[in-house]
Amino acid sequence: MCAATRFPEALPLRKITSQTIVKALLKFFTTFGLPKVVQTDQGSNFTSKLFNQVSKMLGIKHEMSSPYHPESQGALERFRQSLKSMLRKYCLDSGREWDEGVPFVLFAAREAKQESLGFSPVELVFGHSVRGPMKVLKEMFQSEQAPVSKHVFDFTSSFRERWHRACDLAKETLCQSQAKMKRCFDKKAVIRHFNPGDKVLLLLPSPASSMSSSFAGPYVIEKRVGDLDYQIKTPDRRRKYRICHVNMIKPYYERLPTCSKPLELVELPVALASTVENGPVLEKEEFVLRAASQLEARLTNSEMLAQLDCEHSSLVRHLPGLQRAGVIALIREFPTILGDVPKQTSVLQHDIKVVTEKPLKQHAYRVNAQKREIMKREVDYLLKHGLAVPSSSPWSSPCLLVPKPDGTYRLCTDYRRLNAITVPDSFPLPRIDD
Description:
This is Integrase catalytic domain-containing protein. One of its GO terms (molecular function) is nucleic acid binding. Helices cover about 35% and strands about 15% of the residues. The chain is α+β, with helices and mostly antiparallel strands.
């Protein structure tokens, strides 16, 4: 795609090797001329010796965009998305192969007026609007007469003047559109700077899948190579140095001494709970470290029950006098239900019926040392108070920790695979009002 006129070109290829790409580009250059600069990604077919040698022979400067940063070629990436959508629509409507529709789709994209330029790519490249299906239909309705022929010199002069005027207007419109897009983007943008020697986290492709990426590190910044690009040392990777965009970099912060040990798990009451004011939060850009004061121990149920008669009790102070007395009497009537330790009932039992007799056994999920310690304390608490018993069943489901808004964790069991083979019980539940 031409960055100035937004003129697109797409060629279906069976292979994307360096030799195949060079042949396709030479065919394109013989029609539109040799460019001064060609920008590509850092694929191996563009970084090969053959591609670099051909670029030097033709006097073309080869520039490569930052890896995993599609914004470097934003217009091209956006057109690729539109091209795929148009080809999908063409294949669904016509029932043909996608490569047969590439010329027709490109023709429609080239004659369409660009909002950022104010002109179509064909007008900026060839100096006149192309005669497409819509223009033919317009001529049929209006029955336009053929224009009177002009002298060659007059036609050439008017054509040159019209083409230069269109290019100037396109540049002016493009600058206005880019300035508008930049203002919209800068509303939430934050300028970030890094110095040589800073430790950072780097967005790199995952070893298991090249289509996914995650932050790895910490790595050390070697130097700054541009306004938004940095050269970073990656000694544990195949490439010892990488040039990355600032959007792929996060600052790395050393763990605070007060947070070096796992936080103590807070045991929460089951039936009654009280709110605790949120403590200070230490925010550093992408990372949020909650202060230890936010994870203070909460009141137990017995302490809250002892304060029910107090006028300033947070549990019933919002109720009128008569309703407050009724709630307090109801709570006093069943003190064992609202104890400090959760209870379980033996009134009802339910048998889970499954569609297969083959036991379902799942291995435990791997967690870090801190979460493993939290899970161990939770299991010990359940065993100690009789809420769980050791099992030798061939059926097993893994446990996991779900984070809660206050920063603590809730121990849960992942029964999704068990639920998938459970026989649903369609017996209607009675209405509680009846």
